[in-house]
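Milestone 3.1: sequence recovery, worked example.
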């Protein structure tokens, strides 16, 4: 129940901030997927895989560049147990190709709140607040003028930037599937 309350607060906060920008967000995207870790220094780091659910609002688009705000919730499936919830700001570049697919690349930085740090047997996540620099690429497959099915591949890093002495960090790669709905068309 506590996880659901925290996730609801993050989604509501993201929606309020997104609406406070001068115009209503042009699109909403929801994605879910699996992140596999470790991918860097895999012999020195324990396994830490997690399911991730992302809700994104796009509020600025100009010549293929978009700004997105994301609310995220992650639930570990291998490694230390707990939850991670937070938000990320992204910049994305996308371009429609002639064969009706829209590839994109994006970079972002975010903040996660978690309860995994309480598990003193692990040293990947050492603080209740962690930073998440990330990048990825994806494809939007339009199914009509407003809706697309999306696939995305990401690199996701979790670290507290040496704020705590436990800071090995998480380096994961993920694959996601989702849907985008555009509120208005240009």
């Amino acid at each position: 129940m506590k996880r659901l309350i925290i996730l609801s607060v993050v989604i509501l906060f993201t929606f309020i901030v997104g609406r406070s920008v001068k115009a209503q967000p042009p699109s909403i995207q929801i994605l879910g997927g699996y992140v596999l870790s470790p991918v860097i220094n895999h012999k020195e780091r324990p396994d830490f895989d997690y399911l991730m659910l992302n809700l994104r609002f796009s509020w600025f688009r100009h010549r293929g560049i978009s700004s997105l705000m994301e609310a995220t919730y992650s639930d570990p499936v291998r490694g230390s147990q707990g939850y991670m919830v937070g938000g990320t700001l992204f910049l994305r570049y996308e371009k429609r190709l002639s064969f009706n697919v829209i590839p994109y690349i994006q970079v972002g930085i975010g903040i996660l709140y978690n309860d995994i740090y309480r598990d003193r047997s692990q040293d990947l996540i050492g603080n209740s607040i962690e930073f998440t620099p990330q990048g990825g690429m994806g494809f939007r497959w339009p199914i009509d003028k407003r809706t697309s099915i999306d696939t995305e591949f990401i690199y996701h890093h979790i670290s507290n930037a040496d704020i705590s002495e436990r800071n090995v960090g998480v380096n994961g790669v993920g694959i996601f599937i989702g849907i985008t709905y555009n509120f208005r068309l240009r």
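Residues 103 and 139 are 4 Å apart (CA to CA). The radius of gyration is 17 Å.
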